[in-house]
Amino acid sequence: MKIATYNVNGVNGRLPVLLRWLNETAPDVVCLQELKAPQEKFPEQAIQDAGYHAIWHGQKSWNGVAILARNAPPEEVCRVLPGDPEDIHSRYIEANVNGIRIGCLYLPNGNPAPGPKFDYKLGWFKRLQTHAKELLAQDTPVVLTGDYNVMPTEQDVYKPERWVDDALFRPETRAAFKDLMAQGWTDAIRKLYPDETIYTFWDYFRNAYGRNAGLRIDHFLLSPNLEKRLLAAGVDRHVRGWEKTSDHAPVWIELMEG
């Protein structure tokens, strides 16, 4: 079973890229972030024509998350991260797919830091930790994937010294990610590639992709009962080099059937 995550940076503007990638790689399940489209503007028909059922939570101009599945429709569990009824951002959606609970998330960027946006990021992280702990307690196989907007270690960022004051790399952010991991989650990419330089995002500026000046901010966290089913993982880096593409590349894992 192949599961992928992809921050598309605008699902309608990047639709040709998304469809080309789906056709090329045919993952069983896809989590999308940054749809940047209101609920009614999601390209459902084009996704269906590509062979996928979809559930999504849109928002005009910003955010937005979706889960696509190839065979049966995803069974939606929730479309908001619990813990803050005032939070109206479309940043989380969760579904059961083929016996696995999949949480698709788009964690806040948090810049400028310090400030209200950074406080919101850390608050969102706390809610994620609470929810993740509850998911682990259910003993269901769980994948928490998406754009975490965190570089966990210096290994995950080109020239880390330039990022020390950035919300994606500040000590508080990395500590929050570490606390989440300490619940018992496995970082799929690092499990298989502990020492390699792997990035998932390259800025549009200063030829970042050409220079491989990237960040690893899109992550797959697996519950303990899924870790032993992990067969492969990778980044479809070449997609970042396509015309009119997102600044993120798709990330994927392959799991043994349970």
Automatic annotation (TrEMBL):
Its cofactor is Mn(2+); Mg(2+). This is Exodeoxyribonuclease III. It holds the Pfam family Exo_endo_phos. One of its GO terms (biological process) is DNA repair. The lineage of its organism: Bacteria, Pseudomonadati, Bacteroidota, Chitinophagia, Chitinophagales. Residues 4-248 form the Endonuclease/exonuclease/phosphatase domain. Mg(2+) binds at residues 7, 34, 147, 149, 247-248. Keywords: Hydrolase, Magnesium, Manganese, Metal-binding. The active site is at 106, 147 (proton donor/acceptor), 248 (proton acceptor). It comes from Chitinophaga cymbidii.
